[in-house]
């Protein structure tokens, strides 16, 4: 019955962890293909400034939209808890409330498009030709903001139900639609960079339509939820607070990685290029670890909804164990195959030699970051977003402190600070976890 805690024992097993994690890993791996195809299609036009504009546009929108990735994470956590409680109506209320927040936020981004563009273009510092093309791309694609954010909500809702297979399907579908539309509009209709922007925007719109069809097949009907339920003051404040906390966490994370790139650029072209090659190793490791974070998010959230402390602690152990195990395996792989990877990515002998000097640092990122990835999922599923935010800020301060104290070490300081940042996040979450778990289940007793 809706509102009553579930009496069915949750399936918390190694198989269940992998069944949830692997589809999302595949989803993350396919996402970079979208940028590659966009760049290839525009690149065939033979205009360097158009290729530069698409690349900068992707960076700008990744920053703007990923800052609101909180919509996915908050929706997933709340949906998982409602699913664990067997309260299907609350799943729909959560979905409807998140759709409202995404619509309002998206419309605000559209209204603020001019100041956002002015700030982004100024920071980019591109040539006049690139800026002009970037302007065309930006002022078309920004109109898809409400739909892009709504897709975050849809993805969060499917993941919270434990349907990562559907999450994979939706992500791949949006990417395939985007690729197809971009090729038709740019190469077929000769719309240039405007075609690339239109294709991406239309893919987001069609993605929302497809997502709603998928949610309806799952039995959801957010339109049946009353406005009184959606606008319930306590629940709306909780939703907004979670999104605020996760947004602050995301911005701190983006700033840390941006500082890493910016300081590397100041050290010269060789350092910048070598760090870019090595940073891809961290990203590849992150694709695997994100899958286990999603599994933790789903199973821990559902366990809390079911008021099942035993399942919650088992989900924590298994997701953390798999994350650490994969992190260690990927780190070992990077140590063994890192040299050939560097040679494949770059042909410059100076870049190759410099990157090899720092290979061990890059290889350690998956293992030292594994706990942080897993605990992010655990904390999101448990809706401990305030603690996650605070711990991220503390880790960021430690990161900045190391950079200031060890700045004379140059690029070595950058990598030491990054490894400390990843480790501090996981360590802080590990230390705080027992107290938060006890408090949560004591309140459910």
Automatic annotation (TrEMBL):
UniProt KW Isomerase keyword: no
Localization: Membrane
Annotated membrane topology: Multi-pass membrane protein
Matches recorded under InterPro entries: DinF-like, MATE_fam
This protein's UniProt keywords: Membrane, Transmembrane, Transmembrane helix
Keyword DNA damage appears in the UniProt entry: no
One Pfam family this sequence matches: MatE
TM ranges: 17-37, 49-68, 98-122, 134-154, 166-187, 193-215, 246-265, 277-299, 320-338, 358-379, 391-409, 415-433
Family membership noted in the UniProt record: Belongs to the multi antimicrobial extrusion (MATE) (TC 2.A.66.1) family.
Protein name (Swiss-Prot/TrEMBL): MATE family efflux transporter
Organism lineage: Bacteria, Pseudomonadati, Pseudomonadota, Alphaproteobacteria, Hyphomicrobiales
């Amino acid at each position: 019955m809706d509102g009553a805690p579930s009496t069915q024992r949750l399936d918390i097993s190694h198989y269940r962890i992998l069944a949830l994690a692997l589809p999302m890993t595949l989803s993350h791996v396919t996402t970079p293909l979208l940028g590659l195809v966009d760049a290839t299609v525009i690149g065939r036009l033979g205009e360097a400034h158009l290729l530069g504009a698409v690349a900068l546009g992707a960076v700008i929108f990744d920053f703007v939209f990923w800052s609101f990735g909180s919509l996915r994470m908050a929706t997933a956590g709340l949906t998982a808890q409602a699913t664990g409680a067997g309260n299907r109506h609350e799943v729909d209320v959560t979905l409807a409330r998140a759709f409202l927040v995404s619509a309002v936020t998206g419309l605000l981004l559209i209204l603020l498009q001019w100041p956002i563009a002015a700030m982004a273009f100024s920071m980019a510092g591109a040539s006049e030709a690139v800026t002009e093309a970037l302007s065309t791309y930006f002022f078309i694609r920004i109109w898809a903001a409400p739909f892009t954010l709504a897709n975050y909500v849809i993805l969060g809702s499917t993941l919270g139900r434990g349907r990562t297979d559907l999450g994979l399907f939706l992500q791949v579908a949006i990417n395939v639609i985007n690729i197809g539309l971009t090729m038709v509009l740019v190469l077929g209709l000769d719309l240039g960079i405007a075609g690339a922007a239109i294709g991406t925007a239309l893919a987001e719109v069609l993605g929302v339509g497809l997502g709603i069809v998928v949610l309806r097949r799952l039995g959801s009907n957010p339109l049946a939820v009353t406005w009184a339920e959606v606008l319930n003051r306590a629940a709306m404040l909780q939703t907004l607070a979670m999104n605020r906390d996760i947004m602050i966490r995301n911005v701190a994370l983006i700033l840390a990685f941006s500082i890493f790139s910016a300081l590397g650029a100041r050290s010269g072209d060789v350092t910048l290029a070598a760090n870019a090659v090595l940073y891809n190793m961290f990203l590849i490791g992150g694709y695997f670890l994100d899958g286990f974070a999603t599994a933790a998010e789903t199973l821990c959230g559902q366990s809390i909804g079911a008021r099942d402390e035993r399942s919650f602690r088992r989900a924590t152990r298994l997701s953390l164990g798999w994350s650490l195990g994969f992190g260690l395996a990927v780190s070992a792989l990077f140590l063994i195959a890192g040299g050939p990877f560097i040679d494949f990515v770059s042909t410059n002998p100076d870049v190759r030699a410099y990157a090899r000097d720092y290979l061990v640092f890059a290889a350690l990122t998956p293992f030292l970051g594994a706990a942080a990835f897993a605990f992010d999922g655990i904390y999101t599923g448990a809706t401990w977003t305030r603690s996650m935010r605070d711990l991220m800020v503390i880790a960021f301060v430690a990161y900045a402190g190391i950079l200031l104290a060890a700045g004379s070490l140059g690029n070595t300081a950058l990598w030491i600070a990054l490894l400390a940042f990843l480790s501090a996040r996981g360590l802080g979450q590990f230390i705080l976890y027992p107290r938060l778990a006890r408090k949560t289940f004591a309140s459910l007793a």
